Model the fold of this input.
Amino acid sequence: MSYKIAIVGSGSWGSALAQILSDNKHEVLMYDIDDKIVTEINKDHTNKSKLGSSKLNEDIKATKDLTKAIDYGEIILLAVPTAVVRLVLSEINKVIKEPKLFVNVAKGIEPETFKRVSEIVYEEIAEAMIKGYVVLTGPSHAEEVVIGMLTLVTAASNNLDDAKLVQKIFSNKTYFRVYTSTDLIGAELCGSLKNVIALASGMAYGLKFGDNTLAALITRGLLEIKRIVLVLGGKIETVYGLSGMGDLIVTCTSHHSRNFQAGIKIAQGKNLKQTLSEMTMVVEGARTAVAAHQIIKEYKISAPIMEGVYDIVYKQKDVKKAISKLMSRSLKPE
Done:
């Protein structure tokens, strides 16, 4: 069965997912406010600023008309940065006319409120207009997916049937496989928090630390993620799954990772403003570091790596001094 999907946001991941859906014989309409990108997708079937020279299927269309996109899609795929997701949802709420299934692929936590995207969706969209909510998350770089490289992710929802539907729509037998989970809390938190650890990983790489450091950072970072996830109601098996450990590994080790790249720049002496100005895509970890810091303080959680990242990014603490502080902590059992 073919579905009509509206993709809100034509960044790298939104574009890569459009390609998957098109390959799977679904009908796709992308929405973006940038007239240049919309024209490029419709005319040249590329999105060079986000995906380089990769080609998109010719049946993928784009529009600047939000009402047209929302009317078109049986399923609304949210592929915008979490910093603007509340604003975008408030605009969608003005034009949505019938219940839709919402699928989110952004990874972040809102500072101050500690809200996950699912919670923001239910705050901004009239409940009668929400057929269901699913997060699609896991170790997945758009640059690899768009050229058909083998990728496995998780569809998580409080409603297993909704997760299974998204699993069916996105999975194929060649390069993209989706698993299901009912741990929505854990999946959303893991996908968000791993970006903070990826910033630390990039900093370590920028200082020319080696594989030993990276292995330790990922392992101890996973422990910090686990502590937060369990306190906030997620499940431990999610932490050790694709949306937890899997996503953490790929984000902490790949040069495709924008958070990893941002960490490198910070280690080289650039402040957050300089770093973000040089990035072509959103660095979700910078914003999530604020939310993580607030959660850690609120619930008195031990997370020295995440706290170190916060101090470096927002208090301009020297990276080497932050590492020295970590190494000087009291010795303890693993």
